[in-house]
Write a structure and sequence with these properties.
The chain is an alpha/beta fold. The chain is built from seven helices and 15 strands.
């Protein structure tokens, strides 16, 4: 197991006895923390975005959504399957599952799966969550998750106005949108027209020409953005 920090997981199995047994095994592995257990895949899909975890252990045969449906939704997390059926093994590896455990699961077999997960997570590149930029007031550290959108500055188009989640505005000096998009996490930001790029998190609705954000103006009306013709294809692909 890793020594730097605990690994955090969520568990899914529609059979309560199996879920309890799996949780009991997990609790015997040092450095492994069970964040939450689920016996309904629909509830997991509704709640996982509010949880902090590293990987998932999923059953496969369940009513409603099966384990493969859930794994496709959780594609950014390492997946370990736990099932009584051997016929799903090839399908599991087709979607890049880390491991495939046959029930009944032993503690030793679970430890082997967790070691594979730990190795994968240890080898993932570190995610950069902030950058250093030049502003009209000197250098600043800007955390990406605080950015709502960016506009070309009115006075000098080489400068960019960054609108932050706390309502403040920072003026970045002499930086292009192309350079900004090289620095910002590609999955979280997108250019929408010649004058603006936005964080994906602020998109509430969109049409062929207009984006309605979840941000409000001083009159408590949603802030709207124009979707430029040259940027539509990339935008629609991102949100398809």
């Amino acid at each position: 197991m890793r020594s730097e920090r605990n690994l955090k997981c969520i568990l899914l199995d529609d059979e309560i006895p199996s879920l309890r047994f799996l949780k009991m095994l997990c609790e015997q592995i040092p450095g492994l923390e069970v964040v939450k257990t689920f016996n309904d895949p629909a509830i997991l899909l509704r709640e996982y975005g509010t949880l902090s975890f590293d990987f998932c252990i999923l059953d496969i045969e369940m009513p409603g959504f099966n384990g493969f449906d859930v794994a496709r939704e959780l594609k950014d997390f390492p997946i370990v399957f736990s099932t009584a059926y051997k016929q799903y093994a090839s399908d599991a590896y087709d979607i890049n599952a880390v491991d495939y455990m046959r029930k009944p699961i032993s503690l030793q077999r679970l430890q082997q799966a967790i070691m594979k997960v730990a190795q994968i997570i240890d080898n993932q590149p570190e995610i950069v969550s902030f950058g250093q930029f030049n502003t009209n007031k000197g250098k600043t550290i800007l955390y990406f998750d605080q950015i709502n959108y960016v506009q070309i500055a009115e006075v000098d188009s080489r400068d960019k106005k960054v609108y932050l989640a706390d309502g403040s505005i920072i003026l970045l000096k002499n930086i292009s949108f192309d350079k900004l998009l090289e620095i910002l996490p590609v999955q979280d930001f997108i250019r929408i027209n010649k004058k603006e790029l936005i964080a994906a998190k602020i998109v509430k609705f969109f049409s062929a020409d207009e984006i309605t954000s979840n941000l409000l103006d001083p009159q408590a009306m949603p802030i709207l953005f124009n979707l430029g013709e040259s940027y539509k294809r990339m935008f629609f692909e991102k949100f398809s």
